[in-house]
Design a protein that fits this description.
- The strands form five sheets. Strands 1, 7, 8, 9, 12, 15, 16, 17, 18, 19, 20, 21 and 22 form a 13-stranded mixed β-sheet that branches.
- The protein is of the alpha+beta class and 930 residues long.
- A hairpin with a 5-residue loop joins strand 10 and strand 11.
- The chain is globular, with a radius of gyration of 38 Å.
């Protein structure tokens, strides 16, 4: 809006999208770090092939990429699932060697009449919004069809599932054949290089693997197509990259020799599993460096231990002196003052002295215990250093190459080493092959021999087993794989006049082709595919509670982050591809800076008022009993405040004042000393000099105050329940008619009695020196003053005086929401409490939840899970109006009012031109969300 004015709901939205909650969901759901790494790897892949990587901007800014969501309209899965099922059945017939023309005709008729046109329309709709979105569409479409194929395969019998690799290969090629003409037609108008799609998306391979650790075994069928096996890939790794491995050995012992270590664990961490393999010579060199560094570290740690032991001796001596000094002081008290002073005064002094001694002694003992732990840690480290120096060469070699087998089949390592080798040999693979010809021939020969031996061994094992045995089936599958390996390797051997010719050139050529034209493109396709997520997620059963929480977080993230920053697309043939989200303020960034500056860390003031105190006093007509009752309740309240880290400034009997901040507890310890009298009463007296009262803001000061207030209300309700039976006894001298009934029921009590012991809590926040000041008053007592105290006092007395209430200002609200781990709207919480079953039920619930999240609630209501209370905008306070009482300045109207934020974080009312504070109410929720 103009002049920096905006609705309070827009301010609340900025608070939500700047909160710790959105930061956490951004890390877990948006995966920015992982996305950045994946985009970087794909960009490098494209650059090496001289292809532009600009199209990758669809995943967000280069500095902050992340997941992209594609929202599926109702019925999308069913429609495309039907298409996938028809196509899969056609491909299955072909895999069986029995092509079914009637099935293909049905597919083509369905495609020409309905399906092809729909896919083209959606494709065109995406690219009309932005040409680069062709990439998002194709990734989402392939994922949608892959998802449908998974469901189809789950319904097939075991005999059919064995054909899955061949069927899915044909299925994916058919999808490419469907998309390619549409792509060429749509993208010819734009400067999008379709070669990128051909390199990354148009292959027909269907490989499941872990992107973090892709292993050769996952690519076994594709390896066999290129006359390779998993075992040969491992052998080639150790053969081809000997020079790189040697360089790694040298780099390790140089790094070991030049690094500084504070703990033996740092040495162990550096060498453990750092090499794929190691020569004996290199192991001996590393052992020499290791012994030297471990010995140096042992000397250093021994010196630290000696210094620590000397220091521990001094602390023990100081502790003994402290005990002796206290014993001497107590002896003097008994000898000199036992009969010369009033016993009560003497008891107080002794108690004070003992309290101080106990505190000092406890501190010394904790200190000694900590020193003892450090000493044990140092001794353990010294023993580990000695163990490293005595480590046998065999154990060291095993430690250095502990992950050797994994690395030799890890295709990420293959690619890394391959690129280095390609540069070091200047792409002279022909020359390298000639130099290694004899070794490669032996590798082929042994590979074939090992495959044949494995087939014979498994054949004998399968013959001994019952065919119905589940393990027998596994053996047969393993035997089939070994046979397939043998047939693949046989493709490298040619019989020539009774002799065998081994095609080592083809072996190296196919290995290079596998890495650069098969494995690397598939990995980069999977990296991009992993950044596109379909929504709603496919639901196959009712999710457990933890999954439900994740889904709720996902709805929040989708609405508040992705839609807001255009990383959510709708899979539609007509209409907006980019769903409409609430407009971003023109000065959004500026407002966010102010929010973080003024609300992320604050000091929070809490004023509480115990309702009905004056009425109770007039009814009791017994000051002693009144003080007894108030002390009983006041002690309970004080305990709650202290447990939540609050500084209790004063207790007036029918109310009190406290503050919460980063150093509230420490400041209290500096200001007061507490002792117990002989009667068990707790006394506190000031020890403050008035100069050190520098109070600090905190990120969670409002959370502490609200949690404290919420518990105070619960405790007050419990106090009423436990003491209601005493009402007739407490008020037995009163003459009013309403308490003369026998067996009186609390529900029919007059309002004045119902308000007894209810608590009004007001919470207001600000900065030290501006809204809050802690200092000594004219009597020398610690006191709190400032606008935050006045506002909190007004809120504590406001609203309905007959019930407990917690009111807080928008500064407190912002501080709390910014630093809360998880929250949702109250209406969203009510929706999630409704029961949903089955796929359709959960999908409807998710869609309704997103609609609700996208809408703006005029009353600004939020629910805090775990704490089980809600926060609701309930009104506003106008400051500085003349001829208006404080009470009249508090308006309980929860509308979506317009205000202007100033540079100092204050809000101004455009109509009255005065400062305005928005007021929120914390409402405890009963179990079940009522």
């Amino acid at each position: 809006m103009d002049n920096g004015n905006f609705k309070i709901s827009e301010f609340e939205k900025i608070i939500k999208t700047s909160s710790r909650y959105i930061s956490r969901t951004d890390e877990t759901l948006g995966q920015p770090e992982q996305a950045r790494e994946k985009i970087s790897l794909v960009s490098r892949f494209l650059k090496e092939r001289r292809l532009s990587g600009e199209i990758l901007s669809v995943f967000g800014e280069a500095k902050n990429p992340g997941l992209v969501y594609v929202e599926l309209p109702q019925g999308t899965r069913e429609f495309h699932g039907q298409a996938a099922q028809m196509l899969l059945e056609c491909c299955l017939y072909d895999a069986d060697g029995q092509p079914n023309e009637r099935a293909w005709d049905r597919w083509r008729d369905f495609g020409r009449n309905i399906y092809y046109g729909t896919v083209e329309e959606i494709y065109h709709n995406f690219t009309s919004a932005r040409p680069e979105l062709a990439l998002i569409f194709e990734l989402a479409y392939r994922q949608l069809m892959s998802e449908a194929s998974v469901l189809w395969w789950e319904q097939q019998p075991g005999a059919v599932r064995s054909k899955e690799p061949q069927v899915m290969r044909r299925f994916n090629l058919e999808l490419t054949a469907l998309l390619r003409p549409i792509r060429d037609k749509v993208l010819q108008k734009h400067s999008i290089d379709t070669e990128l799609f051909e390199k990354l998306l148009d292959h027909g391979w269907n490989v499941e693997f872990d992107l973090e650790s892709p292993q050769a075994v996952n690519f076994a069928p594709l390896l066999r197509e290129l006359n390779l096996s998993q075992g040969m890939v491992s052998e080639l790794f150790h053969l081809l990259y000997t020079e790189q491995l040697k360089a790694n050995e040298e780099a390790l012992w140089e790094k070991l020799g030049s690094s500084s270590f504070a703990k033996p664990e740092e040495i162990t961490s550096m060498i453990s599993g750092s090499l794929s393999q190691i020569t004996e010579i290199a192991a001996r060199e590393i052992q020499k460096v290791l012994i030297k560094r471990a010995s140096e570290l042992e000397v250093k740690l021994n010196q630290e231990l000696a210094d620590l032991q000397k220091f521990t001796s001094r602390v023990k001596k100081q502790t003994q002196e402290l005990v002796m000094l206290n014993n001497g002081d107590m002896s003097k008290v008994v000898e000199a003052k036992l009969y010369s002073e009033n016993l009560l005064n003497l008891s107080a002094k002794v108690t004070d002295s003992l309290m101080q001694f106990q505190r000092n002694l406890t501190g010394q003992l904790w200190y000694l215990q900590d020193l003892e732990r450090k000493e044990k840690t140092l001794q353990t480290s010294i023993e580990r250093c000695q163990s490293l120096q005595r480590m046998p060469l065999k154990d060291l070699t095993a430690m250095l190459s502990s992950h050797s087998r994994e690395i030799s089949t890890d295709l990420l390592k293959h690619l890394e080493f391959f690129n280095n080798l390609d540069q070091s040999i200047k792409r002279d693979w022909e020359g390298l092959t000639k130099n290694l010809a004899k070794i490669l021939v032996e590798m082929i020969r042994q590979g074939l021999e090992q495959a044949n031996i494995k087939v014979k061994t498994l054949d004998r094992e399968a013959a001994r087993r019952n065919p119905n045995d589940s393990h027998a089936a596994a053996v047969l599958i393993e035997m089939e794989q070994a046979q397939a390996d043998g047939r693949a390797i046989s493709g490298l051997i040619e019989e020539q006049g009774g002799n065998r010719a081994y095609h080592v050139e083809l072996l190296i050529e196919n290995y290079r082709k596998f890495l650069t034209e098969v494995a690397e493109p598939i990995m980069n396709f999977r990296r991009l595919a992993s950044l596109v997520k379909l929504w709603p997620p496919l639901m196959t059963k009712d999710p457990p509670v933890l999954r439900q929480q994740e889904l709720c977080d996902e709805v929040f993230y989708l609405s508040e982050r992705l839609k807001r920053y255009n990383r959510c697309y709708s899979f539609v043939a007509q209409g907006a591809v980019l769903p409409q989200s609430s407009a971003v303020l023109k000065n959004d960034g500026e407002v966010r800076e102010k929010v973080h500056k003024h609300f992320s860390r604050v000091i929070t003031v809490m004023v509480y008022d115990i309702r009905g105190s004056s009425f109770m006093s007039s009814k009791l007509m017994n000051a002693d009993k009144e003080r007894e009752i108030k002390n009983k309740l006041g002690y309970m309240i004080a305990q709650v405040i202290r447990q939540h880290g609050g500084f209790i400034v004063k207790d007036t009997g029918d109310g009190g004042l406290a503050w919460f901040g980063d150093n509230a507890h420490e400041t209290y310890e500096k200001c007061y000393k507490e002792v117990f009298t002989g009667k068990g009463l707790k006394l506190r007296h000031s020890i403050s000099s008035g100069t050190e009262l520098n109070i600090l803001p905190a990120t969670e000061s409002t959370k502490q105050a609200v949690d404290c207030a919420n518990e105070m209300l619960s405790m007050a309700e419990k106090f009423i329940q436990e003491n209601f039976s005493n009402y007739r006894d407490w008020f037995r001298d009163a003459k009013e008619r309403e308490i003369l009934y026998e067996g009186i029921n609390y529900a029919v009590l007059p309002p004045a009695f119902k308000s007894l012991f209810r608590i009004g809590v007001g919470i207001s926040s600000g900065s030290s020196g501006k809204e809050v000041n802690l200092s000594l008053n004219s009597f020398g007592d610690t006191d709190l003053c400032g606008a935050a105290v006045n506002n909190a006092s007004l809120y504590a007395a406001g609203k309905d005086p007959s019930r407990s209430v917690i009111l807080l200002d928008h500064v407190s609200f912002a501080n709390m929401m910014l630093n809360t781990e998880r929250f949702t709207s109250l209406y969203q919480e009510q929706l999630w409490r409704t029961k949903a079953t089955g796929i359709d039920g959960w999908e409807s619930k998710l869609r309704d939840s997103l609609k609700l999240c996208d809408s703006v609630a005029d009353d600004g209501s939020y629910y805090i899970p775990g704490k089980n209370y809600s926060i609701k905008r309930t009104g506003y306070q106008i400051l500085g109006l003349s001829n208006t009482s404080k009470e009249a300045s508090l308006r309980m109207e929860a509308g979506d009012k317009v205000a202007a934020m100033q540079d100092d974080g204050r809000f101004m009312d455009p109509q009255t031109k005065t400062e305005i504070k928005f007021v929120y109410e914390v409402q405890p929720q009963e179990k079940g969300g009522k």
